[in-house]
């Protein structure tokens, strides 16, 4: 999910969109339970919270004696009114206003037993009425067991060929292992709450589940859940069983795996990243031998891999893969995957028939982005040639080899902030092993769903441990080079820093990988029940500054595109979409004077973005005032928040919201020709590609990729999502009205655009865009000035010499060391005179002077006056000397 999440209405809009993702129909159940799945997501009316062995907080209680009643042994734990200690207040800031109770020292020994059954808090009120509520137990579980369990090895661990299986289940009455159809008892370690069993060599490769007998608050009874291993290393098809698998088994290593040579590590501040969905990449590539699979990224001669290799040669350093861990919403066996039952190509480009037909099979087709985690540390089976067994492990590793061989490092999109389901739902894994622990609960006991689905609680010791352990496994066992955290602001900052620390401890000699070279970035949005550090210090944009872990920056993105991704009218324009300089017919853009003022403010936001979103970078803004990046307004928040280049990640588009081409289709005047749309696409991409700090672009954006105006294509199937590497196949525009669920309100705007054949670009526009973008990547790659390391270095080397009251609307001039970069977003040739450079020798950068964009090659410089002349809708880079 990429987008600004700041105010209430906007958060609700995002939540409404995202809930569709989590509500997608699921395939066959991953595991079974002896209890019927309950629709209630959490322990209803659990307003008491046992935060450690000494203290209970009870929202709504009176400050008189109370008690905990245990259904396990029928005993009562006495509670007396108390107060929170300073450390408790620090650990639970959102609870500081509620009544606190102290556990009677005489009863503290009852806690471990009480936690393994039904638990209620009761109180006789002053009016004589008896108050009763359920009890949330994550805090006391962490206090009693977490510190001792957090360093234990969980899941299958092999020693001299013999596996030990371990699962943390401190509240379970019993846990047994169901191994290949037979039941094997497990032994509980009382100090940690971990259940273990050691097996024999012949257990290797066999399917297993845990039989967990536990009190389940969502159904109000004790159940025996048959559930897969949260620490699974391999799975059977559709995740019905875990497999006893040793990832160090030589049989799972493809040829050359131990000797894999990676491309040179690129610091995050210089990273140029392609965001890619595995199925999109190849499913319609007729030159691929493995369409829709991991192995497509090993097909060196396919059109897709040739294109990625050309981007790598130009300066792209990483491919960011959308979720490739095991997710819940796609049938993994090809025989179970439905296909649209229509001839989709036969319908009109503005018809609603395509989306209707795609929607009928969407719940059971082969497509989903995968933001619905089932098992965090196993590759998704639907991308494997065979989802049964270990093929997915081998093929994921071969994919990493293929990308590395093409000159690209690999980033995984990871989604630890929520699960596909919770409670007794058959797709709930964590919550059916330790009910009420792994999910984040609200003050009334319901599961938090602000992330779109059942939220997790990485602030709890063992959920935080799972995050760290999973990331380390991907880095060590699959040689993944980076991680992008979905909704990272829902993680504690401490959790993400713990990931960084664990990765930094990995060394080539000990672990086969250099963990310090692994890059980390994520979505630092601030919203939901964790907003404004309500529960912990979050991993948000502001808080992650200075950590070396980047956050997506929406500031320049919105300025470049115009408006926000959630505008009711998609025609609101921005810097690269014609605001003021090439206005469209939308009344939402305001009067010419209003447009001019907004455009100039957008230019200030882009300037901040070009610095790397630095908080302390000082410059003269378009009003003539000297300001810092933190002093430029972005919807009530500081535009600049980074402490150093590398803290903020620049982008003009990503998988969320409309593609850049589709955004410009909505915003540029409809009569804008294909060549000019191409030029505006390049200019928009350039604002990220030529910035300080890391930058990301969605795969295919350099090919004018369209999803036929779909703003949320997570479940829209191959028809709307597939990449088209051959320009003769078009760019995806005009494949029908986008799916109604997320787009119907935009259909009145979309229909006339999709019906216009002039908006379906030909080969010239597509190939010109790609070639011009690669030229910009080459400039970034070869010029050290784009890799500055500190705010002081940026302040010294980078300036905006024409910024101020006289700045030209629609034109932005940046001086960077020996370079001058002019972004001309207007439909006219522009002169930019920098008087301080009069007499200096500048010439168009040789990459552009001899490059693919022959219009850009006509940019000129007049030495006598210091005037840079730039063609319409062009970014031109000049070099001194």
From TrEMBL:
UniProt keyword Signal present: yes
Region forming the signal peptide: 1-37
CDD domains per record: AmyAc_Pullulanase_LD-like (cd11341), E_set_Pullulanase (cd02860)
Pfam families: CBM_48 (PF02922), Pullul_strch_C (PF11852), Pullulanase_N2 (PF17967)
Keywords: Signal
InterPro entries: GH, Glyco_hydro_13_N, Glyco_hydro_b, Ig-like_fold, Ig_E-set, Pullul_strch, Pullul_strch_C, Pullulanase_N2
Location of the region described as Disordered in the Swiss-Prot/TrEMBL record: 67-91
Span of domain Glycoside hydrolase family 13 N-terminal: 155-232
Domain Alpha-1,6-glucosidases pullulanase-type C-terminal: 730-878
Domain Pullulanase N2: 46-143
Taxonomic superkingdom: Bacteria
UniProt-listed NCBIfam families: pullul_strch (TIGR02103)
Family as reported in the entry's similarity comment: Belongs to the glycosyl hydrolase 13 family.
Name of the molecule in the record: Pullulanase-type alpha-1,6-glucosidase
Upper lineage: Bacteria, Bacillati, Actinomycetota, Actinomycetes, Kitasatosporales
Gene: pulA
């Amino acid at each position: 999910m990429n987008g600004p999440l700041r105010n209430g209405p906007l958060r609700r809009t995002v939540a409404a969109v995202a809930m569709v993702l989590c509500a997608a129909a699921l395939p066959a159940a991953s595991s079974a339970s002896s209890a019927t799945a309950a629709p209630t997501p959490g322990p209803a009316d659990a307003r008491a919270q046992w935060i450690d062995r000494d203290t209970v907080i009870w929202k709504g209680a009176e400050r008189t004696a109370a008690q905990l009643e245990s259904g396990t042994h029928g005993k009562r734990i006495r509670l007396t009114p108390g107060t929170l200690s300073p450390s408790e207040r620090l650990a639970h800031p959102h609870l500081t206003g509620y009544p606190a109770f102290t556990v009677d020292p005489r009863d503290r020994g009852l806690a471990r037993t009480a936690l393994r059954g039904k638990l209620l808090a009761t109180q006789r009120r002053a009016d004589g009425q008896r108050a009763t509520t359920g009890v949330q137990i994550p805090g006391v579980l962490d206090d009693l067991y977490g510190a001792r369990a957090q360093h234990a090895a969980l899941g299958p661990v092999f020693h001299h060929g013999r596996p030990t299986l371990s699962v943390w289940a401190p509240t379970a009455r019993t846990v047994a292992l169901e191994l290949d159809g037979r039941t094997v008892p497990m032994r509980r370690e009382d100090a940690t709450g971990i259940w273990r069993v050691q097996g024999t060599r012949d257990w290797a490769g066999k399917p297993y589940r845990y039989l967990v007998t536990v009190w389940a608050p969502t159904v109000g009874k004790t159940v025996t859940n048959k559930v897969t291993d949260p620490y699974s290393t391999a799975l059977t098809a559709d995740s019905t069983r875990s497999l006893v698998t040793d990832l160090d088994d030589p049989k799972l290593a493809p040829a050359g795996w131990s000797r894999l040579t990676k491309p040179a590590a690129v610091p995050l501040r210089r990273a140029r990243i392609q965001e890619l969905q595995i199925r999109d990449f190849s499913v319609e590539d007729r030159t691929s031998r493995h369409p829709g699979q991991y192995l497509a990224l090993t097909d060196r001669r396919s059109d897709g891999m040739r294109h990625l290799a050309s981007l790598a040669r130009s300066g792209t350093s990483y491919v960011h893969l959308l979720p490739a861990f095991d997710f819940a919403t796609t049938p993994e066996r090809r025989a179970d995957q439905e296909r649209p039952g229509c001839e989709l190509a036969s319908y009109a480009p503005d018809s609603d028939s395509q989306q209707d037909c795609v929607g009928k099979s969407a719940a059971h087709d082969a497509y989903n982005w995968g933001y619905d985690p089932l098992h965090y540390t196993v590759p998704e089976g639907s991308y494997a040639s065979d989802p049964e067994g270990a093929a997915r492990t081998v093929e994921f590793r071969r994919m990493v080899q293929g990308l590395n061989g093409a000159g690209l490092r690999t980033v995984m999109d990871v989604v630890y902030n929520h699960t596909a389901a919770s409670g007794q739902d058959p797709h709930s894994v964590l919550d059916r092993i330790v009910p009420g622990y792994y999910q984040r609960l609200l003050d009334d006991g319901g599961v938090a769903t602000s992330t779109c689905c059942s939220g997790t609680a990485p602030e709890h010791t063992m959920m935080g441990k799972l995050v760290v352990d999973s990331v380390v496994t991907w880095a060590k066992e699959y040689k993944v080079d980076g991680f992008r955290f979905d909704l990272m602001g829902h993680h504690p900052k401490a959790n993400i820093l713990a990931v960084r620390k664990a990765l930094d401890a990995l060394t080539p000699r000990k672990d086969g990988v250099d963990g310090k070279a692994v890059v980390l970035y994520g979505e630092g949005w601030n919203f939901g029940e964790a907003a404004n550090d309500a529960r912990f210090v979050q991993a948000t944009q502001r808080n992650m500054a200075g950590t070396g872990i980047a956050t997506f920056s929406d500031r320049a993105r919105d300025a470049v595109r115009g408006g926000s991704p959630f505008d009711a009218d998609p025609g609101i324009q921005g810097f690269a979409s014609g605001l003021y300089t090439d206005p469209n017919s939308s009344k939402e853009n305001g009067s010419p004077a209003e447009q001019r003022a907004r455009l100039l403010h957008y230019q200030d936001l882009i300037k901040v973005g070009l610095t790397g979103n630095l908080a302390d970078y000082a410059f003269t803004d378009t009003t003539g005032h000297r300001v810092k990046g933190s002093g430029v307004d972005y919807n009530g928040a500081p535009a600049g928040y980074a402490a150093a280049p590398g803290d903020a990640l620049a982008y003009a588009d990503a998988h969320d919201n409309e593609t850049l081409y589709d955004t410009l289709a909505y915003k540029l005047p409809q009569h804008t020709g294909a060549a000019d749309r191409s030029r505006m696409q390049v200019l928009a991409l350039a604002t990220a590609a030529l910035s300080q700090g890391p930058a990301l672009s969605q795969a295919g954006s350099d090919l004018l990729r369209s999803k036929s105006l779909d703003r949320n294509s997570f479940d829209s199937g191959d028809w709307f999502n597939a990449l088209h590497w051959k320009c003769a196949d078009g760019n995806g525009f005009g494949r029908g009205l986008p799916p109604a669920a997320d787009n119907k309100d935009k259909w009145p705007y979309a229909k006339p655009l999709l019906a216009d054949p002039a908006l379906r670009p030909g080969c010239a526009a597509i190939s010109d865009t790609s070639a011009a973008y690669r030229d910009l990547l080459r400039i970034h790659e070869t010029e050290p000035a784009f890799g500055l390391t500190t705010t002081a270095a940026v302040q010294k080397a980078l300036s905006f010499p024409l910024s101020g009251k006289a700045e030209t609307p629609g034109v932005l001039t940046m001086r960077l060391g020996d370079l001058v970069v002019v972004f001309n977003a207007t439909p006219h040739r522009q002169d930019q005179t920098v008087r301080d450079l009069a007499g200096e020798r500048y010439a168009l950068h040789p990459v552009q002077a001899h490059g693919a964009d022959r219009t850009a090659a006509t940019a000129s410089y007049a030495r006598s006056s210091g005037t840079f002349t730039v063609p319409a809708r062009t970014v031109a880079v000049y070099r001194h000397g």
